[in-house]
């Protein structure tokens, strides 16, 4: 067995794993050339790591040589680690052979910066081009754009990639200056803006000419590191909101900072802030699928998300005047805002109530989870619970009441929190 | 009391529906011929599959239901659990006796059940699309075995045809003893005795029938799987929720390590 490839793969997969995006959905590349692969529609997770994350793509760095010295990054110049690099052909062979065996949906390629930005970016583009043109590969390709790469190269990347991403990493300019002195916001936002413009342009051209080339049909995404710097959740959500609105991003990913360095610019933590990361994802979902504005979820008065309860419940407890909601008559939008009721349940409720007035038994049969919802809804004016509890009591009932099971991890992290506070 | 028996095919089940409506004799049970126990009281009606009759029922359903709902009915057939025939019949009867569309009527228990079954079958289909692992044989065939909880092989063929248009592949269901074989032009359903598929032993092919590079890529995949993990975030509960243990048999990354890395 070729031990060199094995070693490279170990090092360069290890270095890429802190990038949390693994989405392979939203592509529109059909297999029309009797080639290899198909990337239309839904993404597929082919496996899951022991930390519970989806493995959908071959996620690797082209190299972990890097001229930058970002404090939060494993690959930073000053870190004493083994360095290596794949050749273009090695990445192509791995991708094709993994794909043919149904291990992966495609490739997620990023890189440390060696020599300079354009030199690195040019190699990433060459790999994507080779896969598309020489191997008729229609699987998913996600390319990371290298900060400072020229617009022409990014444009070319978009012709072969399904998704492009530019990682912001730190949620404010100030933190960026402190932890990644070689980077700046302008350098990050400029390519993001350029990609966003290209996406709009390509869509318009495709309306006119069906044969116009597609540009990154699955859009662009970014990642923010949570817990390596001092920003409040409120600032993070505000930034995400701007990114979704201003740069029409498909996704903002949040990565709880994993201590990879003893750099004295960084906070000393013993384990990644997993609960906080989870709450921010829940808030992100509320913005994208539940019609919440970012400042309804967190604001200057409530700058951090409640770690003990989910952000929707937290909002409901601050806004009791909207409740109880009558399941048989309320708007879909309002049913979506009931704690514990998700998009699927809300849709089922709205569909079923056209046929018969709904009772609590109907909701249970449909699989609507009532543990939290029962405090906020009525069915034909009947209620399962007294509605006159004050918010503090309600919160305690939901958290500690009968049948409330708390994950060991949550209990553990909250305990640590109490000790620290 | 009417017991209908049929040959176990989907067309057969649709023919049962046709016959029951024709006779206005509603079934108390529907069973496959080889499993049916004769009734002590009541009448047994042995239905012979008739493609025309089946076709009329199916087109009737297609006119009254969305594609999603007819698909859910087909899923109910593939679900295979005891009593699926009667559930199928109840749903179809509700469709034909109701004036409007019954699809979203989750207050009717057969509609809700069919919807829930369809979700289960769909999830199993998706899992097969995700967890199937092909091994390349010396003659260039990509071969995989499955043993899904429900009979989802017919549902996943299209997915693999689109994905692997340029390679010959086969997926064999070891529980139901049939498989799909794609030869670069079309897919045919085969049973093992009559086909060119290599013999299977729990899905492991004899080493000498494998392509010389096969082992190497399985090893590389294991290496990748181990190094993409973040030990600081270990979460066994979440891991198991995503890949329950009964699926591990398919996954090369869950097999003993070829080498320590």
UniProtKB/TrEMBL annotation, chain A:
Domain of life: Bacteria
Cofactor: [4Fe-4S] cluster
Alphabetical UniProt keywords: Iron, Iron-sulfur, Metal-binding, S-adenosyl-L-methionine
Organism this protein belongs to: Pontibacter ruber
Protein name, UniProt field: DNA modification/repair radical SAM protein
Lineage, top ranks: Bacteria, Pseudomonadati, Bacteroidota, Cytophagia, Cytophagales
Domain Radical SAM core, residue spans: 61-190
TrEMBL record, chain B:
Segments forming domain DUF4130: 85-253
Pfam family, one: DUF4130
Entries under NCBIfam families matching the protein: SAM_7_link_chp
Designated name of the protein: TIGR03915 family putative DNA repair protein
Species name: Pontibacter ruber
């Amino acid at each position: 067995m070729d031990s060199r490839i094995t070693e490279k793969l170990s090092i360069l997969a290890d270095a890429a794993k802190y990038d949390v995006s693994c989405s392979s959905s939203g592509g529109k590349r059909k297999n029309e050339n009797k080639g290899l692969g198909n990337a239309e529609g839904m993404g597929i997770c082919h496996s899951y790591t022991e930390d519970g994350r989806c493995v959908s793509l071959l996620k690797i760095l082209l190299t972990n040589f890097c001229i930058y010295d970002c404090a939060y990054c494993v690959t930073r110049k000053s870190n004493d680690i083994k360095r290596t690099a794949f050749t273009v052909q090695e990445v192509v062979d791995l991708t094709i052979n993994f794909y043919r065996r149904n291990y992966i949906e495609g490739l997620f390629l990023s890189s440390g910066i060696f020599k300079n930005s354009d030199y690195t970016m040019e190699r990433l583009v060459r790999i994507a081009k080779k896969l598309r043109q020489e191997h008729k590969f229609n699987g998913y390709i996600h390319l990371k754009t290298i900060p400072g790469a020229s617009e022409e190269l990014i444009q070319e990347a978009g012709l072969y990639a399904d998704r492009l991403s530019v990682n912001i990493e730190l949620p404010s300019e100030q933190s960026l200056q402190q932890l990644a002195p070689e980077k700046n916001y302008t350098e990050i936002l400029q390519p993001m803006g350029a990609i966003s413009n290209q996406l709009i342009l390509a869509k318009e051209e495709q309306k006119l000419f069906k044969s116009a080339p597609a540009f990154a049909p699955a859009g662009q995404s970014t990642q923010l590191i949570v817990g390596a710097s001092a920003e409040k959740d409120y600032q993070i959500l505000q930034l995400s909101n701007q990114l979704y609105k201003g740069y029409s991003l498909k996704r903002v990913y949040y990565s709880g900072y994993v201590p990879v360095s003893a750099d004295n610019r960084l906070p000393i933590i013993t384990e990644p802030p997993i609960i906080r990361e989870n709450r921010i994802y829940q808030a992100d979902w509320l913005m994208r699928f539940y019609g919440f504005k970012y400042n309804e979820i967190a604001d200057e008065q409530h700058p951090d998300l409640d770690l003990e309860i989910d952000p929707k419940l937290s909002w409901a407890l601050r806004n009791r005047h909207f409740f109880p909601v009558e399941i048989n008559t309320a708007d879909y939008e309002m049913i979506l805002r009931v704690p514990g009721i998700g998009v699927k349940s809300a849709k089922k409720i709205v569909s079923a109530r056209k046929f018969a007035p709904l009772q609590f038994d109907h909701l249970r049969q449909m699989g609507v989870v009532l543990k939290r919802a029962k405090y906020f809804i009525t069915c034909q004016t009947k209620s399962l619970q007294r509605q006159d509890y004050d918010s503090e009591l309600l919160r305690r009932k939901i958290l500690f009441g009968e049948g409330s099971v708390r994950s060991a991890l949550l209990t553990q992290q909250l305990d640590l929190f109490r000790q620290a506070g | 009391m009417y017991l209908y028996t049929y040959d176990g095919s989907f067309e057969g089940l649709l023919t049962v529906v046709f016959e029951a409506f024709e006779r206005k004799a509603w079934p108390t049970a529907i069973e496959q011929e080889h499993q049916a126990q004769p009734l002590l009281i009541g009448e047994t009606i042995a239905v012979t599959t008739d493609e025309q009759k089946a076709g009329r029922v199916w087109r009737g359903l297609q006119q009254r239901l969305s594609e999603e709902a007819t698909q859910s009915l087909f899923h109910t057939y593939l679900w295979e659990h005891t009593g699926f025939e009667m559930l199928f019949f109840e749903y179809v009867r509700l469709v034909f006796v109701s004036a409007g569309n019954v699809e979203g009527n989750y207050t009717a228990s057969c509609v809700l059940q069919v919807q829930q079954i369809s979700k289960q079958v769909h999830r199993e289909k998706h899992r097969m699309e995700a967890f199937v692992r092909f091994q390349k044989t010396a003659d260039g065939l990509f071969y995989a075995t499955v043993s899904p909880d429900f009979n989802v092989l017919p549902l996943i063929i299209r997915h693999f045809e689109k994905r692997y248009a340029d390679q010959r592949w086969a997926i064999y269901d070891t529980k139901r003893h049939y498989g799909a074989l794609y030869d670069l032009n079309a897919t045919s359903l085969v049973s093992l005795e009559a086909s060119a598929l290599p013999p299977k032993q729990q899905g492991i092919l004899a080493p000498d029938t494998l392509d010389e590079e096969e082992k190497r890529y399985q090893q590389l995949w294991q290496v990748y799987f181990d190094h993409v993990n973040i030990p600081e975030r270990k979460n066994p509960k979440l891991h198991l929720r995503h890949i329950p243990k009964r699926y591990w048999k398919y996954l090369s990354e869950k097999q003993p390590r070829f080498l320590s890395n």
